Amino acid sequence: LYPIPEFDLKTFNECIPERKAIFDHQNKEIAAALDLLSEYWETCQQTKTDENRALAFARAAAAIKCLPFKATNSQQLKGIKGLGNGHALRVATQILESGYCPEVEEKRNDKKFLSLQIFCKVYGVGPSIAEKWYAQGLRTVEDVKKLDQQDIANNDMIAHGVAFYDDLNRPLLRAEAENTYKYITDLAKLILPSVVTSMNGGFLRGKSSGHDLDVLFSYPEREDGDYGLIAAVLDELNKKGLVVWSRATHTDGPRKVIEINSSPLSSGSTKEHLPTMMIIFKYPLDDRFDEFERRDFSGERNLGPFQLANSNRQWRAVRVDLVGSTNAQYPYAQIGWTGSKQYNRSLRQYAKDSLNYSLSSMGLHDNGQNRWIAAQTEQDVFHHLKLTYREPWERNF
Length: 397
Ligand code: TTP
Ligand code: MN
Ligand code: MN
Ligand code: MN
Hints:
The protein is α+β, with helices and mostly antiparallel strands. The protein is built from 19 helices and 10 strands. A hairpin with a 4-residue loop joins strand 9 (364-366) and strand 10 (371-373). Helix 12 packs across helix 14 (228-239). Bound molecules: thymidine-5'-triphosphate and manganese (II) ion (3 copies). Residues 201-202, 207, 210-212, 214, 336-337, 339-341, 344 line the site of thymidine-5'-triphosphate (TTP).
């Protein structure tokens, strides 16, 4: 049983982002148990300690997803970096030995957790609002829908999240995402023929369904300022009446105009500032945009979110993120918006600890030399990080 042939624990532990995780990995039961504990502490977080528990279980689950063999004996799980030798290993051992972990089942059925989980599925709601609603006595999504509209009307994101709860929690299928992607990027190419686009997020990692569509745009800096192109795309969609709701993420103000000869990575910060348009989009129920886009939606324009959701409509609400990047940022933006979230965390942690680099979706900064490192492709970025290139579908940490 142990040791596993062709598995070298030392190599596996040397560098976490050298690991690979595909969706169809071999230890799904253990990973699911650890993911649930992570979600539990993320959802029910009251303190910094709870938040750290959520992160620790997410790291442990990621380590399990990367194992290149099916674990059959808990001895095989000893000494794995990320899994550790404590709580997460105990959970994994119980699953292995009996297929059952009492703590996981207890938490999975925890009444408060179940309510908070439902609340967090409302677009725009995170753990703190969920906790507030719970404290007010709400328990179900029906309770939320009955909320005195005052409570949610002052936040139009949450108002739409509640009104379109069912639409937005129905998984978005790959075919629907690809359809929407083509429609939106065709529009973008009419505006700026040289634009480069990609469908990122979970779909690029090989998922067959997801919670939204993530579209990344790349264009030359001088032609399009901060929101330039993605604002123009949103305008077009709005003119056609296809946007239910949208919000631009806040940045620290307009990006500095680049002087000639300045760094190709113009931004002075590694914080996440890529201009992003978060959209709730009208997706045609018959999957066909050609006739749909010529319809007259003016009658829907002045309806509030609840009226609109309950109207007799020929579409379903779908979440789309439009993200803008300059050509110089693009390889970094691609990695950042491909994820997974946990994969990104491990990359950034490694870059900082091992190389004293700061990595973000905007670029890579060498803190020792105080300079930005340019890249043309994702492969370049991996090379700069002294890592073996990993395909998007190998980044499912
Ligand atoms: P999401 O669209 O939130 O996630 P996803 O596409 O991986 O999965 P889903 O099917 O649920 O949509 O984010 C897209 C990518 O952006 C994600 O894979 C990683 C990155 N990201 C972060 O790194 N940190 C974050 O906080 C968020 C929201 C996203
Ligand atoms: Mn996504
Ligand atoms: Mn998500
Ligand atoms: Mn997204």
